[in-house]
């Protein structure tokens, strides 16, 4: 495993699936001036490909399988115990497909980010790409937000848009959105590690000022 760099903020990633966002973040964090270090990946799916990606990248992993617990509270308590061992400054949800309890979210308030595949507040929850197509939307995208008790409802930090083409399917749209996610998430993580973004009472503070609307990555 890579030696810890003691001065850099410690980032812990939670994921459930393929881990392309984890990969994008690890790749970004290997750039020389990146202000954070990825110290571990936690996963609730023992077979998830993200675990292989982490092994390849020499990042430590742990698995907390939700099927081993009879309640959400017990699962979250076990997850929290694992996370605390790494003493993270930032926890990022990158395709982590479990709903977290209020206790968990409160314990890490202001340190917990999520990426969600829609232009929030549109399409919280699942099947966002199909729902955007069904609604005939001409734009779609992805959002990075602070996690609060409300599912997919915490203050949005930044968004990236994609245009919806007439022949887009759920899969082509998902692909376009993921390409944007791989650019957007490392940028927001960088801002966080540089101390530029904070969670205020109910809004995002960017360089100490309330963010009136999410930062935007242009569609090009
Ligand atoms: C990402 O597109 C992310 O936005 C989405 O899961 C995908 C994970 O991909 N997250 C959610 O739907 C959360 N509700 P990845 O495993 O390749 O990073």
From TrEMBL:
Keywords: Purine biosynthesis, Transferase. SUPFAM superfamilies: Formyltransferase (SSF53328). This is Phosphoribosylglycinamide formyltransferase. Gene3D superfamilies: Formyl transferase, N-terminal domain. N(1)-(5-phospho-beta-D-ribosyl)glycinamide binds at residues 19-21. GO terms for biological process: 'de novo' IMP biosynthetic process. Belongs to the GART family. GO terms for molecular function: phosphoribosylglycinamide formyltransferase activity. One of its GO terms (cellular component) is cytosol. The record marks 152 as: Raises pKa of active site His. PROSITE patterns: GART. Residues 10-188 form the Formyl transferase N-terminal domain. The active site is at 116 (proton donor). Catalyzes the transfer of a formyl group from 10-formyltetrahydrofolate to 5-phospho-ribosyl-glycinamide (GAR), producing 5-phospho-ribosyl-N-formylglycinamide (FGAR) and tetrahydrofolate. The keyword Transferase applies. Its EC number is 2.1.2.2. Pathway: Purine metabolism; IMP biosynthesis via de novo pathway; N(2)-formyl-N(1)-(5-phospho-D-ribosyl)glycinamide from N(1)-(5-phospho-D-ribosyl)glycinamide (10-formyl THF route): step 1/1. (6R)-10-formyltetrahydrofolate binds at residues 72, 97-100, 114.
């Amino acid at each position: 495993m890579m030696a810890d760099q003691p001065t850099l903020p410690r980032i812990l990633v939670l994921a459930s699936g393929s881990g392309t966002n984890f990969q994008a973040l690890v790749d970004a964090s290997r750039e020389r001036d990146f202000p954070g270090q990825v110290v571990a990946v936690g996963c609730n799916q023992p077979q998830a490909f993200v675990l292989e990606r982490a092994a390849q990248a020499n990042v430590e992993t742990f698995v907390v399988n939700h099927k081993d617990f009879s309640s959400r509270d017990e699962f979250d308590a076990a997850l929290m115990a694992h996370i605390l061992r790494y003493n993270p400054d930032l926890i990022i949800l990158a395709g982590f497909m479990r709903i977290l309890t209020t206790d968990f979210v409160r314990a890490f308030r202001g340190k917990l980010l999520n990426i969600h595949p829609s232009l929030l507040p549109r399409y919280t929850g699942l099947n966002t790409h199909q729902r955007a197509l069904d609604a005939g939307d001409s734009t779609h995208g992805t959002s990075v937000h602070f996690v609060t008790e409300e599912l997919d409802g915490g203050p949005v930090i930044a968004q990236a848009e994609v245009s919806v083409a007439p022949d887009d399917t759920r899969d082509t749209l998902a692909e376009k959105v993921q390409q944007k996610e791989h650019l957007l998430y490392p940028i927001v993580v960088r801002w966080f590690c540089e101390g530029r973004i904070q969670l205020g009472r109910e809004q995002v503070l960017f360089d100490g000022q309330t963010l009136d609307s999410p930062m935007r990555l242009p569609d090009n």
